[in-house]
Design brief:
Pfam family, one (chains A, B): CbiC
Pathway (chains A, B): Cofactor biosynthesis; adenosylcobalamin biosynthesis
CATH class of chain A: Alpha Beta
Family (chains A, B): Belongs to the CobH/CbiC family.
Low-confidence stretches of chain A: none
InterPro entries (chains A, B): Cbl_synth_CobH/CbiC, CobH/CbiC_sf
Mean pLDDT of chain A: 96
Number of strands of chain A: 6
Strand content of chain A: 5-15%
Largest sheet of chain A: 6 strands, mixed
Oligomer: homodimer
EC number (chains A, B): 5.4.1.2
Radius of gyration of chain A: 17 Å
């Protein structure tokens, strides 16, 4: 068996296989790139029908990146999956507050989760315009609550919490928000999905 | 809508939902814990029938952990998904060499991928007894080649590369190896899957 070793050649061949399966998707080329990268990272074609991209999401995301926005993630695993060199080339940084000692301390004092507290922390910096939440429904719920209270004003939310308790509900609520978002219907999602969506945007620039 | 905020309560409720769906699985309780944690992280019940655990894998993994083994990962995203505090309590460390400058340099000199070079580097330390490879088929192929050449001797391989080029083939070859392994048949896999399997083992201790 011949093993293809060149990472670019592997990715090109993979994307060609995926392209055949999603050729009939009715969306823009940019939106299709997002769907393809998620399928590339999961080998799960269900995402073809589950990913929902609001009309203005790609443009809003690209504009935010161009202006040097940071990207906030809910967990460190998602942060590790995003191309930080590419983000840095636009002037932005990856931010994740979940493991900060002071976030843990304040969360305990207030009786909320660290995920929630890390969203409150992130909302304070106006350079944090893109939020990627791949795991914790409580983080996504908290961010939407902050927005409704006028305490957060992100330009794009990539919200793909995964799981059986609260994930689906948090994403259904995100779909009702009047702001740019990219999400996944149902229970599926996770760090790999959120990272792929974010990287797809980064690679468009 | 009531939002469950307590992370432990969310996990317990999730695991109860998953338990109902996998109740008929014919395997040990420990093996079932691995399957459930993967489904918990992906919300994808396909994994119920795709995860293959060699007869001796759980015991070998637990023994390696107990002896203070490090865990080597192919990519940083997977490293970030494994509970390092728990691993540290047994005396082990997480190791990932893919981003090391000298690994990149040596890979270039030898004309191989950084993934492959990082496996060669990892194989040199006998305390690296557990390998978790969630993404790069070339890393898994290289590790198996090192084993066959007598240059690596891991006690457990968690091998779940994902994708369309080489992933399925690398895992099929892993199933033929005469050593403890945990894998996923077909194209699916990835960092979230490999992290869940590894954490399931860590949480058994």
């Amino acid at each position: 068996m011949e093993i293809i070793q060149n990472p670019e050649a592997i990715e090109d061949k993979s994307m060609n296989i995926i392209e055949e399966e999603v050729a009939d998707l009715e969306c823009s080329d940019q939106e299709k790139k997002i769907v393809k990268r998620v399928i590339h990272a999961t080998a799960d074609f269900d995402f073809k029908d589950l990913i929902i991209i609001s009309e203005d999401a790609v443009e809003a995301g690209l504009q935010a990146l161009e202006s040097g926005s940071n990207i906030v993630t809910d967990v460190n695993m998602l942060r590790a999956g995003i191309n930080d060199r590419k983000l840095g080339s636009f002037g932005g940084e990856l931010k994740c507050f979940i493991s900060n000692d002071d976030v843990a301390k304040e969360a305990k004092e207030k009786g909320i989760t660290r995920s929630m507290m890390s969203m409150r922390r992130a909302a304070k910096n106006p350079d944090n315009k893109i939020f990627a939440i791949g795991n914790a429904p409580t983080a996504l719920f908290e961010l939407m609550k902050l927005i409704k209270a006028g305490k957060a004003d992100p330009e794009l939310i990539i919200g793909t919490p995964v799981g059986f308790v609260g994930a689906k509900e948090s994403k259904a609520e995100l779909e009702k928000m009047d702001l740019p978002f990219i999400t996944v219907r149902g229970r599926k999602g996770g760090s790999s999905v959120a990272a792929s969506i974010t990287n797809a945007l980064l690679y468009m620039k």
